[in-house]
Amino acid sequence: MVSNSLCSYSNAKSWAFEEAKKIVSRLAKIKKDKVVLETGYGPSGLPHIGTFGEVFRTTMVMNAFNRLSDIPATLYVFSDDMDGFRKVPTNVPKQEMLSKYIDYPLTSVPDPFDKYGSFAEHNNAMLVRFLDSFNFKYEFKSSTQLYKSGVFNNCIKKILENFDEIMSIMLPSLREERQQSYSPILPISPVTHKVLQVHIDEINLDNYSIVYVNPETGTQEEVSVLDGNCKLQWKADWGMRWVALGVDYEMNGKDLIDSYKLSSKICRVIGGTPPENLTYELFLDEEAKKISKSKGNGLSIDEWLKYAPKESLAYYMFQAPKRAKRLYFDVIPGAMDEYIDALQKYHDNPSVDNPVFHIHDGNPPYYEGVLKFSLLLNLVQACNTADVSILMQFINKYLVNPPIVTCEFMAQLANYAIEYYKDFIANSRIPTKPTEQQVIVLEKLKTELQKLAEGTGAEAIQNVVFEVGKQYHPGDAKAWFKTLYNVLFGADSGPKMGSFISLYGIENTISLINERILFNPVASNKNIRYLSEGMTEYKDETSNTAKQGLASINNSEVR
Question: DSSP letters of 174-237?
């Protein structure tokens, strides 16, 4: 952990500390012996990565607050699982069966996966599993349980007592048609068991009940607003919840700015103080559209974690919460590389404003000489192999005496790189056939590389590559390296060539150039056999420490 001698938390500038300072300032006005942070989730569809992102970011704020104050803080992850089921998601099975449960409370809708007692319970369990895999500290709160147990009763009474004032807050925000049927209180019909959006005809404060006409039966019904017999409209629910649970901090997406303002007004009407707030930008899918639980667009958490470790996802979530971000597969390599860069910067210059400080709660790991994920992707392509042990032979030769912890981490990254390459690069990267002029340049590069001893350092190799390029692309190094990336990898960008050649080996690189000159984009079977069987000298020269690390990796599941 970074000590106060290295950095004063009160002077920290990262957004998480800035948000935590809002809570500290709040406590100077509202005396409390416990701080509550909340995130809200609607289990009307499978939890998506945006839901995870809100919990992660709020956790970072809580951790920062814990470094600024001795007052205990708790995070509530609240599931609005008593809400009415309004739309069948397109990314779940048994669509026809689910369509029969429109307007039922989500905890009354059957689980289409046949694993849990309800659709809400299934989705809640998915979210909890994701959160637990990141070791978040939180308390899960179920709307259904809190309504039915009477926890919300006192605040719901205040909603009913201030019914007219709350209506005056809400009605101007609604379309004229919606105004006719709007009520902040939604009765759950004792006949149809549906959550009804109906006009309230009569309010009885003596027994805290409401009277309305059920649009399906045409009959008048009277129900108590207490003990889970009614559900609040979500803006009223949000404001009520802040008061009932004593919430001090909650962030929300840009699309809920107006909702936060309305809920804040309702919160004040029933005697509460709205929580401190951060408005974050939305996560977008491949087509820059908002990701949605009902559509299932964008990346899922499981999909991201198939191709990169959870630290890369955490890094992507932490960065710039007020900037809109695409959540698609092509952002994963960059996020992984930036995480590795941030780790190195932290250990060169420890700072509580570095994202990895927050991701690892003040104790980032140290991996000596870790290679970039993008470099590993090119190594996978050059080797044309799905065998992680082959990649590790190259990596161990390149790193020289790597600590076991580094060796294990690199083996994990190598496995991820293989998975990512197979699914997103193998069928899309087609090396470009070199022109006659480019063949001349590549032959020159081969000649210069042949003058170097195997094991020459990356910087020395980079200088050679750069000097060759200057002869044929004077003043335009970018064009030269783009040529190399196009011809060798079928991409417009790529790794630092000195690092790649040092990792892959000078002789192997010369063989790769020969294949491209002959325009053989896929390495020959002969070359693959060489990689599998001819690396004995590499393996034997690997340190005993690295060998032990590699042995432990190969005997365990690294993904």
Answer: S-HHHHTT--SEEEB-TTT--B------EEETTTTEEEEE-TTT--EEEEESSTTSEEE-HHHH
What is the distance between the alpha carbons of residues 1 and 336, in angstroms, rounded to a whole number? 23
* pLDDT tens sequence across 105-125: 999 999 999 999 999 999 999
Q: Give Cα 473 to chain centroid, integer Å.
A: 42
| ∠ CA 179-292-234, rounded to 5° | 35
Q: How far apart are CA 148 and CA 144, in angstroms?
A: 6
Distance separating alpha carbons of residues 169 and 157, to the nearest angstrom:
18
d(CA 371, CA 374): 9
Alpha helices in 319-433 (DSSP H): 332-348, 355-359, 373-383, 388-399, 404-420
d(CA 105, CA 232): 12
Sign of the Cα pseudo-torsion (496, 311, 364, 7, in order): positive
Contact 74, 36 (CB under 8 A): yes
What pLDDT was estimated at residue 297?
57
36 phi/psi in degrees, rounded to 5 = -120, 125
Report how far residue 167's alpha carbon sits from residue 469's, in angstroms, rounded to the nearest whole number. 72
Q: What single-letter DSSP state applies at residue 434?
A: P
Where is pLDDT greater, at 1 or 518? 518
CA distances from 142 to 133, 155, 463 (A): 20, 17, 61
